[in-house]
Inverse folding.
């Protein structure tokens, strides 16, 4: 615990030190990065220790604020999510050093560095808090600092708009959390999580209401469809290492919150599990299809985060449903897959966002239609981005394959269940997961293929240059993590077992036993297949080189059906790549809306095509909702005249009313 | 051990022959003599000894595409048993690895196509991955039906001893599944009615257009990988359709080889009597295959 506190202290102190040395940009950057990296390293050590050796003693201290107290603990569930946070924060902070030096362009960086460190500290605090008020305070600091980081480029109106959307969404979500914790506190009679833990056995608990509040409140943060609308706006707007942190670590806090709340409630009924699984499956599909329509590489990655959170949610829902039906193995596999996917996603999405940041910076655009040919210009950065693309498509031999494989096993377990409706639902969910995986492959061949391959589509991309090792070394660290988690799945699961057991409400040893069979069975083939793949590919490569050694390959233009003057504009575009799938095969709701004016007549006039990619959840749900609410609240404006004496009158009337209420209630 | 070695050898050597049989059937139905049965081997041999031409836009991804594609398909072959000996690798849920290894091959083939910067190949890559995103759920549904019918979780067991009794208890469901699996096999291997391997117009092709720019040994790897993939899907269909269990592994192997011959003849016949579907019809066919396997599942759950 002291190590964890030390990490928090270093983060906060380093942030303020960076602020104080605001004038000297280089010093501030060094202080900020150094403290963030050191704090993350210490925090990672503390979290892994807590997960491996068991939780350290909880910290208790008093706090003078009303209802508040300082209660910190590192139980397995907290430690599990802290590992994801700090494992990503370390490379992201290192990457940020080189990235911000270029992005700052003479701006003082002190405030940015302070907010960055405070964001890290507040996420860690949210994960370790064991008291409702402390949790909410940390939650609010997390929301505000991340907002301030998102609007770093506030000269851009687009970024300001994204920031506002984020701020509103985040606070609406938090409102639900206030309700949740107030109700939990009223039921438990105290605001400590320890007291909440005892609620599970209490009769007459409004459990469904509490679950609903947690689902909306935490689901907003986790990007559960359709509450995800802020996410594809906010995550791309931030500097890339912050995007990585937001997408890789912060949205997981929503999952943590949901799991934590579930641990306060009695064992979840079957219906909750089905609800979560359905939300997850539908959301994952919708999000990956929407990702397919984006031409901004970071926006597409943000949608992919929504997709991956959908997969995690599917796993959690499946686990709850399996536990409700008494299938211990099914629950262990599903929760194991879901939690492992949290780690996997933190690493691979972090890698993808860092890579996207470097690529966008080098090519001076985030639009994949303006990129192209970056692999030959930035071999290291682009190669690592390609690795992330393979990992995000859940292909072997990389890490996401392992967690999805566990989910498939969980679904199969449910598909074999003797109860009649369950197998059908599980099979459909399994088909949905396969569909999502295959569409993800479309989305990521598109992203990687258009951004990295072919010939450059703009002057910026043509003159792009590889950044220094300070940019690609942190990415290589994350890439190594992706490969490592894939090759040692049994070890990763053994480390995560206490957290999975806590979520599945099973004893750790029993859970280890349940998971041991399948994972040990998997670990060997996965390594064998990785080795076999590598060896076969190497052999074939060597053979090919020998065959071609006799006849040196000629170089020529790409085959263009006999046309000899190809230009970069003749390449397939991102929208055409996605068109086949988007125009006919997916629900029209998810397809981009396009307005086409075809050339007509013997002397065709102007023809045009405009395509709008709007989020359907925003267009169909939130925009109308907010407009309607805005129109209704217009009436209240008459009360708000801005005259001081009226405002004072309101205050006096309110106070009198409250006093009257107290007087009336007293006897 | 001996059987495993023979099995591996058959897997690596027979696939081009399968193509030869399909071509011969098509030629006979059309009233031609047709090319020699071993022509695909001659083609591979010739290609291996040719030089290559690389486009100036390409990177290592273009060169790696055929290599990774072939390696992934060959590795997927380790997960399947061909009747005689058990598969080299077998574990619960190995069919996920099987499907995703084929996905890896597809991923890199599509990337290699995009690496040329050609609109044709981009189009082919887009079609391949888009149609595959429908074929994949259909394949998984078929395999889930098998898992449910046999109570097994690994490919070897699903297609192994339990299959015989499953045929006797839930024959109709397995028949539907075999049909769906056959459709998926045609789609995944770019055969008629989804794609025409012999077409000459780039605009209408799917798989072939992706590999327009590959030449020499690279192209040989691609053709050989495609043949291996057809063999794998054929093996899935044949093992499922054969059903019953043989006591002697040699008999099982012989039956399997006979089955593969029939599979090739059926594919050739289908290609002879059917025209290619319009591109917009292909998804309907694949969704139809998924629906068939869901029906099969409903029959099982009855």
């Amino acid at each position: 615990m002291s190590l964890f506190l030390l990490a928090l202290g270093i983060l906060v102190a380093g942030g303020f030190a960076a602020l104080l040395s605001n004038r000297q940009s280089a010093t501030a950057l060094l202080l900020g990065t150094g403290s963030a990296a050191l704090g993350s390293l210490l925090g990672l050590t503390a979290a892994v220790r807590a997960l491996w050796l068991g939780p350290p003693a909880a910290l208790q201290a008093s706090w003078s604020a009303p209802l508040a107290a300082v209660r910190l603990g590192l139980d397995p569930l907290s430690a599990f999510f802290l590992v994801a946070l700090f494992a990503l924060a370390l490379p992201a902070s290192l990457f940020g050093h080189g990235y911000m030096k270029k992005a700052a362009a003479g701006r003082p960086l002190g405030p940015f560095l302070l907010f960055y460190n405070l964001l890290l500290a507040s996420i860690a605090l949210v994960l370790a808090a064991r008291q409702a008020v402390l949790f909410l305070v940390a939650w609010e600091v997390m929301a505000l600092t991340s907002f301030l980081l998102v609007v770093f480029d506030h000269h851009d109106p687009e970024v300001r708009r994204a920031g506002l959307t984020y701020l509103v969404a985040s606070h609406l979500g938090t409102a639900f959390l206030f309700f949740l914790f107030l109700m939990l506190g009223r039921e438990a009679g105290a605001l400590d999580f320890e007291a909440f833990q005892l609620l599970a056995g209490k009769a007459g608990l409004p459990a469904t209401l509490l679950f609903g509040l947690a689902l909306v409140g935490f689901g907003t943060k986790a990007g559960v469809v359709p509450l995800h609308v802020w996410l594809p706006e906010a995550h791309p707007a931030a500097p890339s290492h912050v995007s990585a942190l937001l997408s890789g670590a912060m949205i997981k806090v929503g999952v943590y919150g949901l799991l934590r709340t579930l641990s306060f409630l009695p064992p979840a009924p079957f219906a909750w599990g089905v609800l979560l699984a359905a939300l997850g499956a539908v959301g994952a599909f919708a999000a990956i299809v929407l990702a397919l329509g984006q031409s901004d590489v970071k926006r597409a990655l943000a949608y992919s985060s929504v997709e991956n959170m959908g997969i995690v949610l599917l796993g959690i829902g499946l686990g709850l449903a399996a536990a409700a039906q008494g299938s211990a193995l099914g629950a262990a596999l599903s929760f194991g897959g879901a939690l492992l996917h949290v780690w996997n996603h933190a690493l691979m999405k972090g890698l993808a966002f860092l890579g996207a940041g470097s690529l966008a910076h080098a090519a001076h655009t985030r639009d994949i239609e303006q990129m192209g040919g970056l692999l030959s210009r930035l071999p290291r950065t682009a190669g690592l981005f390609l690795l992330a693309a393979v990992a995000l498509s859940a292909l072997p031999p990389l890490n996401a394959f392992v967690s999805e494989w566990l989910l498939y096993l969980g679904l199969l377990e449910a598909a074999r269940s003797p109860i009649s409706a369950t197998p059908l639902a599980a099979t459909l969910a399994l088909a949905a997961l396969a569909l999502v995986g295959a569409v993800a492959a479309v989305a990521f061949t598109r992203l990687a293929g258009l951004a990295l391959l072919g010939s450059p589509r703009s002057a910026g991309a043509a003159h792009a240059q590889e950044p220094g090792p300070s940019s690609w070394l942190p990415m290589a660290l994350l890439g190594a993590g992706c490969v490592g988690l894939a090759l040692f799945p049994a070890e990763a699961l053994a480390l995560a077992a206490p957290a999975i057991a806590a979520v599945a409400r099973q004893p750790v040893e029993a859970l280890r036993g349940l998971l041991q069979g399948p994972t040990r069975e998997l670990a060997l083939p996965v390594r064998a297949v990785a080795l076999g793949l590598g060896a076969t590919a190497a052999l074939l490569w060597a053979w090919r080189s020998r065959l071609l050694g006799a006849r040196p390959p000629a170089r020529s233009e790409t085959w263009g059906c006999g046309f000899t003057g190809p230009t970069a504009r003749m390449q397939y575009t991102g929208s055409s790549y996605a068109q086949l799938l988007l125009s006919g095969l997916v629900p029209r709701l998810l397809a981009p809306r396009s307005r086409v004016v075809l050339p007509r007549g013997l002397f065709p006039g102007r023809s045009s095509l405009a395509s709008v990619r709007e989020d359907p959840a925003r267009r169909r749900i939130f925009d109308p909702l907010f407009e309607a609410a805005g129109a209704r609240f217009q009436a209240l404006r008459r009360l708000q005249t801005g005259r001081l004496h009226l405002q004072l009158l309101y205050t006096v009337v309110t106070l009198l009313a409250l006093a009257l209420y107290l007087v009336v209630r007293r006897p | 051990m001996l059987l495993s070695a023979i099995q591996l050898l058959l897997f690596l050597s027979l696939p081009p022959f399968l193509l030869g049989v399909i071509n011969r059937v098509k030629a006979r139905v059309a009233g031609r003599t047709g090319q020699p049965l071993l022509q695909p081997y001659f083609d591979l041999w010739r290609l291996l000894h040719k030089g290559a031409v690389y486009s100036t836009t390409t990177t290592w991804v273009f060169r790696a595409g055929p290599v990774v594609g072939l390696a992934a398909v060959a590795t997927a072959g380790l997960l399947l048993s061909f009747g005689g000996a058990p598969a080299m690798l077998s574990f619960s849920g190995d069919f996920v690895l099987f499907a995703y290894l084929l996905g890896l091959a597809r991923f890199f083939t599509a990337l290699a196509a995009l690496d040329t910067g050609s609109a044709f190949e981009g189009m082919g890559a887009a079609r391949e991955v888009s149609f595959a995103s429908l074929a994949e759920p259909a394949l998984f549904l078929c395999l889930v039906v098998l898992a449910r019918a046999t109570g097994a979780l690994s490919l070897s067991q699903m297609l192994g001893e339990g299959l015989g009794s499953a045929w006797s208890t839930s024959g109709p469901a397995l028949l539907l599944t075999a049909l769906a699996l056959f459709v998926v096999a045609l789609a995944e291997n770019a055969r008629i009615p989804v794609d025409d391997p012999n077409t000459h117009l780039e605009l209408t092709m799917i798989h072939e257009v992706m590999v327009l720019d590959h030449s020499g040994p690279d192209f040989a790897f691609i053709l050989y990988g495609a043949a291996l993939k057809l063999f794998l899907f054929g093996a899935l269909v044949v093992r499922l359709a054969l059903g019953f269990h043989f006591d002697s592994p040699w008999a099982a192997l012989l039956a399997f080889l006979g089955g593969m011959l029939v599979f090739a003849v059926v594919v050739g016949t289908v290609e002879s009597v059917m025209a290619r579907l319009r591109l917009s019809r292909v998804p309907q066919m694949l969704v139809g295959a998924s629906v068939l396997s869901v029906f099969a599942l409903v029959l099982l759950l009855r």
Notes: The CA atoms of residues 95 and 471 of chain A lie 5 Å apart. The beta strands of chain A are 59-62, 69-72, 554-556, 593-597, 608-612. The two ends of chain A are 48 Å apart (CA to CA). Chain A touches chain B through 85 residues (CB under 8 Å).
